[in-house]
Amino acid sequence: MPISKDEFQGIDEDDTSRPDLSPETTQGAVYRFLLANADRAFRQREIVEAVDVPAGSVGPTLKRLEDHGLVAHRDRFWAIADDEHAAAAAGHHSAATADAVDGGFDDDAVAAWMENAVDPIDDRQQDATTNEE
Description:
Helix content is 64%, strand content 8%. The chain has 133 residues and is mostly helical. The chain has a domain of 88 residues: Winged helix-like DNA-binding domain superfamily/Winged helix DNA-binding domain (Arc Repressor Mutant, subunit A, Orthogonal Bundle). The longest helix has 21 residues.
């Protein structure tokens, strides 16, 4: 069933979800490159050369990241947005502080914990069932 031109134009405007920034995506690769080089701004061509993604996808990707407030654009240069850089830096600092306090956990330790972890919600549901009997 066809939709009106107004509905068509509004499709992207209604989408408020954050982009997929996982490392295997173009958005993730471009975002991570700019975040890792937060003290500099790059031309689109320089980003294409630095990131292993299709050249034609970098421009639209930068625009989408800008629409989400993750990168900033001035003249021909692109950089990580100041707010995004501050949030990412705070997250990294928080994780480093937690690792310094508890010694950090490697992947094997996390996997072992996950195998034996008890979901507190399950415990509460079991307790409620036991108390009802």
